[in-house]
Amino acid sequence: MKKNITLRDFRESVAKGRKIQEIVGEYFSRIEKADPESKTYLTLNKEAALAEAKKVDLKIENGERIGSLEGAPASVKDVLCTKGLRTTAASKILDNFVPPYDATAVAQLKKEGAIILGKTNCDEFAMGGSGENSAYGVCPNPLDRERVPGGSSSGSAVAVAENLCIYSLGSDTGGSVRLPASFCGICGMKPTYGRISRYGLIAMASSLDQVGVMANDVSDIAEVLSAISGPDPMDGTSSGVAGQNFSDDFEEGVAGLTIAYNKKSIGQSDPAIAKASFEFLKKWENAGGKTENIEIPFLGEEAVACYYIITTSEVSSNMARFDSSRYGQVTRKSLEDSTNWKDFISLNRGELLGKEVKRRIIMGTFCLSSGYYDAYYAKAQAVRANIKKKLNEIFKKYPLIFTPTSPDLPFKIGERMNDPVKMYLADAFTTSANLAGIPAISIPIGETGLNGKKLSIGGQLMANAWEEKTLLRGAYWAEKILEEK
Fold this sequence. Notes:
Elements (H helix, E strand, L loop, with lengths): L6 H9 L4 H14 L7 E4 L1 H16 L11 E5 L26 H8 L3 E6 L33 H8 L5 E6 L5 H7 L2 E4 L19 E6 L2 H11 L29 E4 L1 H5 L3 H16 L3 E4 L7 H18 L13 H6 L3 H12 L2 H14 L4 H23 L4 E5 L15 H5 L6 H6 L3 E11 L2 E10 L5 H16 L2
């Protein structure tokens, strides 16, 4: 199989007579031959996956009905629960946790016949934008192994980019699917909040988290989204909007799709990113689409500040459940040195939680504390409401908004670990979509050379809530336009 295989390529191989067992076996061979220090996968599902592949081969031989993703090898970020398969959230505190149930999104994949190869690495509890906060080590960017892959869905992005799966489920709280997709040269999308059930997704910030999809092209994104979206009685934040075919508008082309952008904010990005962005907008116009430079508020530090106040506040609440009294790891020190329940939890969490997780718990607790709640959290929620209002006003006139996915190129591993503010600003263009609950996608729009390596540049498109069809149609044609020489 060629590198960067798509679902279409996979189906063509099967139609020509290739066995699913053989294809799945090849994926595991590549995974096992990959650099063991890269830690792209934290847990493999080899025995069960090969058994499922055998069942699919029998179904095909017998002419039985097969699902939309039947036999297609996928991976799942290690913050989504998988029944009987270790789920760590890339944290030592959950090193031995094996869920008794599947997340709804995972169950939907299995219902459509997908084969789960394993669980991918990520920032611990999805807290990070570089992939460096995993308790199990960072998986390097496949385009330049000295640089970060982006986070928090780092392993999912690397697995797709390195042909260690066809597509992957990630989670996106403020850009955690889109940023690594951009850095690794693939596509990554977060849908409207509530489009995909969050049941079984280990919560970081409940009002912002959303299951997302990562793949090598927009068509695969649309197909997987169609398979896993829809209402879920197990999730109170899941909408009543039924799943649909998100690719059936693709043939309408670019007619009527005006892209709004902000020239100033693009110009403040890395020069190579700004150049690729303006070249993309010019190509869109040459293909018959329209673009317009407008004022787009909250693309930058304001949105990042609002986002991190709300996120850390929700983190401080959500992380309280990880006290190891019911599940999770327990250290010898916490058992031997604690004299009461409070000491036990403090010692255990102190040893097993990482630096970034602790930082966010402390920040969030401060923002919610007496005397500071109104000054920080309440004001951030007011800004969030204003962001949503302003974006709604823009979408009344323009169906799509374009920004670079990140203002920065992938940075070197370790470069920003001691400068969390600079790290957080990599999310300058992505956080608004989560704060407003709207869908957004990152697609590769160009490349740039740096120190002898070619790095990917991602561009982001955003659409109004529940307008995934419009967003994916725009991304599909952007992909087509960019492929033309």
